[in-house]
Amino acid sequence: MADVVDFESAKQARSRHIGGPCRCMNCGHEWVAVAPAGSPAGLECTECGLSKGVLREFIGADVGQERYVCNQCESDVYMIEPHGAVCVGCGWLHTWDDLAP
User: Fold this and answer.
1) 23, 31, 59, 93: least surrounded by Cβ within 10 Å?
2) Which of the two residues, 85 and 98, has the higher pLDDT score?
3) Where are the alpha helices (DSSP H) in 1-101?
């Protein structure tokens, strides 16, 4: 008798994954994780249990390139809105004038 193959599990096992250092945007805990590609945010924090973990190096400047860091919490992850950029780490609103080189 042949084995039964679960196609969904087999597909997930062969799908592309990303991994690396993560940081919880709630408690600041850092750990290393692997997740399916396309899910860079909302990872479950291994410390506080909230789904606020993000891959720290998934999106960012290459080594030697200029990057913008929050002057309140040193995060470099932002949400863009009409009045400026909101730091995902602490919620501080950086106006476009603050971010100009």
Assistant:
1) 59
2) 85
3) 7-14, 96-99
